[in-house]
Design goal:
- There is one protein chain.
- It contains 21 helices and nine strands.
- By secondary structure, it is mainly alpha-helical.
- It folds into two domains: about 1-195, Fumarase/aspartase (N-terminal domain) (Fumarase C, Chain B, domain 1, Orthogonal Bundle), CATH 1.10.275; about 200-305 and about 345-500, Fumarase/aspartase (Central domain) (Fumarase C, Chain A, domain 2).
- The strands form four sheets. Strands 4-6-7 form a three-stranded antiparallel β-sheet. A two-stranded parallel ribbon has the order 1-2. A two-stranded antiparallel sheet has the order 3-5.
Length: about 500
């Protein structure tokens, strides 16, 4: 795959992040990159004071730097800004950050040498990943601290995750045949400025959130089928009457999941008229999640191709303009939105799990196990799901409504976009595990309806789950089952099992 700074899609990004697709610079953009660098060189030759090129940074922007210290200025910038703390970012997210940064620099508005971009792509293609702490960015001049940690590796400092584990930077660069960079004017600032941490993690959150939204329909339908619920609430006429695209898509998936079910056919004449909201209103809730994720995709599609450096170089006019494209507000707000809507998936899922636990409502054995009393079955699995769903409600409080002044009040309104993306990822992973609990409970509940069999779609998922998770016949540890089920969901295997039936 080739990057040009303008045409990277979210689907291509996901391929690079998860499938490790090889990435190169599109040769067509090299003249722009070189011309942008020449503007920097010409500016230095003329001796003009330009922010971040021959001045200090932030509050120190008025301090002029002599020509013989310009390279030191860029190196010192990286070293001084590497102040992140907390857990290291997980590998896929680091790959996302590297890709987003390289694509932005390839746009040709940053004034870096092409070698800087090539080195970033070499790290990505060799899967040599800088250790980037999760915390330390307020999303003001971009994600300064995380991107400084990313940049440490390029200059031979810090550590990196490799196939051999975590190793010193120089050893990691040698493994990929990369020489440490001696940063030149503007290059350190170009590497540190920008929204690439929050955007890279945002792409992952969007990808997983979208996968969970579709998979929630699959698992929710299995639970509804096992609970003898009616699919009447999923009739397309109802959802067409309201008019939301996501709602109609969700209802369609639910109908197709429950189609041809002998379990459903067995209770067509039952007296139940309406089911609880956690079943009946799945299209309304899950559909709203899908519609919101589509909006988020639009924002991220712009941001991964955006020039978020400062200052920016415009080669036609040979001008260097200082602005605020590094401000992460577009991303911070949609990451908060993502956290809110994905938390709704977990809340609905937990309620369906609780429905399956209650024998008075479900007409199934208490806690989905034989000989309840001596066996507790899935009692505490539901408690774990409840804990995660409630944690999501706390995490869903928006980060983007906060601001705290930094850099001696030069940066007086910040976005907290990195915080929104980090907690958004935790919400996504919590939700995956709540859905995992629902999945193993729905499979167990469907089996209790024997000799009646589930419909064709549910049978496929049931067979997939049973290939790796046995039926719970008596109490055993089930934390491993939940983890395995979550992996089936996150890997996309649950969706793939029925994709042709519910499309």
């Amino acid at each position: 795959m080739k990057i040009d700074g303008s045409s990277l899609t979210l689907q291509q990004a996901v391929q690079v992040i998860y499938q490790r697709e090889h990435v190169e610079i599109d040769e067509a953009v090299l003249p722009q990159i070189r011309a942008s660098r020449k503007v920097i060189s010409d500016c230095l030759a003329e001796g003009k004071p330009v922010y971040g090129i021959n001045t200090g940074f932030g509050k120190l922007a008025d301090v002029r730097i002599s020509d013989d210290h310009l390279d030191d200025l860029q190196r010192n910038l990286v070293l001084s800004h590497a102040c992140g703390v907390g857990q290291p970012l997980f590998p896929e997210a680091v790959r996302a950050v590297l890709l987003c940064k390289a694509n932005t620099l390839a746009k040709g508005h940053s004034g870096v040498r092409e070698q800087v971009i090539r080195n970033l792509l070499s790290l990505l293609n060799h899967n040599i990943l800088p250790i980037i702490p999760e915390q330390g960015s307020v999303g003001a001049s971009g994600d300064l601290a995380p991107l400084a940690h990313m940049s440490l590796l390029l200059i031979g400092e810090g550590e990196a995750l490799t196939a051999e584990g975590v190793v010193p930077a120089v050893k990691a660069l040698n493994m990929a045949g990369i020489e440490p960079l001696k940063l030149q004017a503007k290059e350190g600032l170009a590497l540190l400025n920008g929204t690439h941490f929050m955007t890279g993690l945002g792409v992952i959150n969007w990808h997983l959130g979208s996968l969970l939204a579709e998979t929630a329909d699959i698992i929710g339908a299995m639970a509804a089928e096992a609970l003898l619920c009616t699919p009447v609430a999923f009739d397309d006429r109802i959802h067409k009457a309201r008019g939301y695209r996501g709602q109609r898509l969700s209802a369609g998936r639910l109908r197709k999941m429950m189609a041809g079910s002998p379990i459903r056919e067995s209770h067509l004449g039952c007296s139940r008229v309406q089911d609880p909201y956690s079943v009946r209103c799945m299209p309304q809730v899950h559909g709203a999640v899908c519609d919101t994720l589509e909006h988020i995709a639009g924002i991220l599609s712009v941001e991964i191709n955006a020039a978020t450096d400062n200052p920016l170089i415009f080669i036609e006019e040979k001008e260097i303009l200082s602005g605020g494209n590094f401000h992460g507000h577009p991303v911070s707000t949609v990451m908060d939105m993502l956290g809110i809507v994905v938390s709704h998936l977990s809340a609905m899922s937990e309620r369906r799990v609780a429905f399956m636990m209650d024998s008075a409502m479900s007409e199934l054995p208490p806690f989905l196990v034989r000989d309840s009393g001596i066996n507790s079955g899935f009692m505490i699995a539901q408690v774990s799901a409840a804990a995660l769903a409630s944690e999501n409600k706390v995490l869903a409080h928006p980060a983007s409504v906060d601001s705290i002044p930094t850099s001696a009040n030069k940066e007086d309104f910040v976005t907290m976009g990195a915080s929104a993306a980090v907690k958004g990822n935790r919400i996504v992973m919590n939700t995956a595990h709540v859905l995992a609990v629902e999945l193993i409970c729905a499979c167990q509940a469907l089996e209790f309806r024997a000799p009646l069999k589930p419909g064709p779609a549910s049978r496929r998922v049931l067979d997939l789950v049973r290939s790796v998770i046995p039926t719970l016949k008596k109490d055993r540890r089930i934390d491993g089952d939940i983890k395995t089920a979550a992996e089936l969901i996150i890997s996309g295997q649950v969706l793939e099992a029925v994709e042709d039936l519910i499309a």
